[in-house]
Amino acid sequence: MLKYEAIARELREDIQQGKYTPGEQLALEKEMCQQYGVSRITIKRAVDELVKQGLVVKRRGSGTFVKSLKDEDVKELSMANQFSGFAATFKGRKVASKILKFEIIHPTAEVAAKLQLAVDDFVYDIIRVRLLDDQPIVVEYTQMPIQLITGLKRQTLEKSIYSYIEEDLGYKIQSAHRTVRAVMPTPEEREELQIEGVLPLLEVTQVAFLDDGRPFEYSIAHHRGDCSNFRSVSIR
Amino acid sequence: MLKYEAIARELREDIQQGKYTPGEQLALEKEMCQQYGVSRITIKRAVDELVKQGLVVKRRGSGTFVKSLKDEDVKELSMANQFSGFAATFKGRKVASKILKFEIIHPTAEVAAKLQLAVDDFVYDIIRVRLLDDQPIVVEYTQMPIQLITGLKRQTLEKSIYSYIEEDLGYKIQSAHRTVRAVMPTPEEREELQIEGVLPLLEVTQVAFLDDGRPFEYSIAHHRGDCSNFRSVSIR
DNA sequence: ATATAATAGATGTATATATGAGCAAGGAGG
DNA sequence: CCTCCTTGCTCATATATACATCTATTATAT
Questions:
Q1: Distance CA B220, CA B211 (A)
Q2: Do the beta carbons of residue B111 and residue B143 sit within 8 Å?
Q3: Which whole-number Å values give the CA distances from A156 to A115, B21, B56, B57, in the listed order?
Q4: Does the beta-carbon distance from A84 to B114 stay under 8 Å?
Q5: pLDDT of residue A227
Q6: What's the distance, Cα to Cα, between the start and end of chain A in Å?
């Protein structure tokens, strides 16, 4: 474990456990150096991590101060700017998948461009309903190049494609580019998500990349608006 | 302008102008040191900025590589993880506001908690329709503590509250915590946003903070789903 | 008493340097 | 010819140091 990560986690846990009142000043960077036995730059990286997570603010010339947050917010914020697949996001809870489609097709021109492919290349075309504690909460439309994500089996789709990519294929997943919109469900989605009445869906369109920069996934996820939501922290 | 920012911008412009083919390797950090006449740590900060913006990936032992992106994506990505008010977001275009409500009330318990107030404190209660090029695209429900954001006038609401806070009150805005959901418009919203037929809205709930850590705004924005959308880059 | 100026203290930026870890190419040995 | 290992290159992490910039307090002058 990296030093600055360990210190950031320790500080975060202190804040989560309410050891600071809202607005209270943290120890000075110089003091933390002694406290943790590391250099000031390492302390700075740790505290900057907390800023990125939205827990504290730094004021040049004054010090670092805990934001005025409700307790429940603090836990969720640490996760806000990370990203992982469905299975990892709800790790520890009962997750399952219902496969509606699993074929190999040619991509459209738009998808081919996003995945850096030619239109006569092939991609997996997957539609899955993801269930959390037996409740359907999202329909995922996924396309992946067959050259890159080789040997995908129906069995893998039941669980987690991401862990297949990382553990079996040995790739590393680096990042995802997302856009979010609001849409209405199709009749099929209404049925699969067991929607009664009028309920909109949150559409998350995502292109995901390996750590060598190659895009490996184009996916559109339609979330039940009343179940899941997305959080983020933005810094000026 | 900071050195690492200037270098990051220069590199970003090179990428935007297509000086690199998708997947192409950037100059080595050591080479950039000579090229720009700065230390390696400064180069590293600049390149890390591009990683955060989603334009490149770094591979230890190999170098830095340009992601495979469509041209149009590159421009928008630089902005993705920033945040600004409505007026600043659409700077250069015609923006206007229609004020539906401007009152002073007691906050609910939930809002009071988020804004670190007591329920017998007072907050501004503002409802505005924001127009872009004369088209209504979002309804904003905003609450701000009157102790903090003092002297707010109807005239200010027509323009930009954020620039009033920064320029007139002299505060600095630091960050915002957001959650995003999908919702259906109310009959009023249907009218104000000139919605015909069935169209869902993107709901962005936001708590915004000053640079001293105090929350100064609780707002809920309902965006026409077909006009605006939100982008973000997530790193593992 | 008020306004201004000096000063101490805190974080920000940048450099130089050392060590660690992952990657790829090239050489030794079978 | 193929495999394994060494080696050098590249980025990652961490330290020490210097100077810049901003804040808040203290001291001084009016």
A1: 21
A2: yes
A3: 21, 34, 30, 28
A4: no
A5: 65
A6: 30
Nucleotide whose C1' lies closest to the alpha carbon of residue B51:
D11
3-state DSSP: chain A helix, strand, coil percent, rounded to 5?
30, 35, 35
Model pLDDT for residues B20-62, shown as the tens digit of each residue: 888 888 988 988 998 899 999 999 999 999 998 889 999 888 8
- Give the end-to-end CA distance of chain B in Å, rounded to a whole number: 30
Condensed to tens digits (0 to 9), the pLDDT of residues A85-124 reads 888 888 888 889 999 999 999 999 999 999 989 999 999 9
8 Å CB contact between B138 and B185: no
**Residue B230 burial (CB count, 10 A):** 17
Q: Is A185 exposed, middle or buried (0-12, 13-18, 19+ CB in 10 A)?
A: buried
The string of DSSP letters for A76-89 reads HHHHHT----HHHH
Angle CA(A222)–CA(A227)–CA(A231) in degrees, nearest 5?
A: 80
Beta-carbon contacts of A2 under 8 Å, excluding residues fewer than 6 positions away, are none
* Stated length of chain A: 236
Instruction: Report chain A residues whose CB lies below 8 A from the CB of B212.
Output: 23, 57, 59, 65
CA–CA dist A12, A18 (Å, integer):
10
Which CA distances in Å does B150 have to A31, B145, B161, B236?
37, 8, 11, 41
Query: What is the Cα–Cα distance from B32 to B40, expressed in whole angstroms?
Result: 8
Tokens of B155: 């005239």
Q: Which residue out of A25, A70, A180, A203 would a mutagenesis test of the B interface target, given it has the greatest number of B Cβ atoms within 10 Å?
A: A180
Encode pLDDT of A142-179 as tens digits. Answer: 999 999 998 899 999 988 899 888 888 888 889 999 98
Higher pLDDT, A36 or B225: A36
| Interfacial A residues in 50-109 facing B (CB < 8 Å) | 54, 56-57, 59, 65-68, 70, 73, 77, 80-84
pTM over 0.85: yes
d(CA B69, CA B233): 13
Q: Does A146 contact B at CB distance below 8 Å?
A: no
Per the CB < 8 Å rule, is B179 touching A81?
no
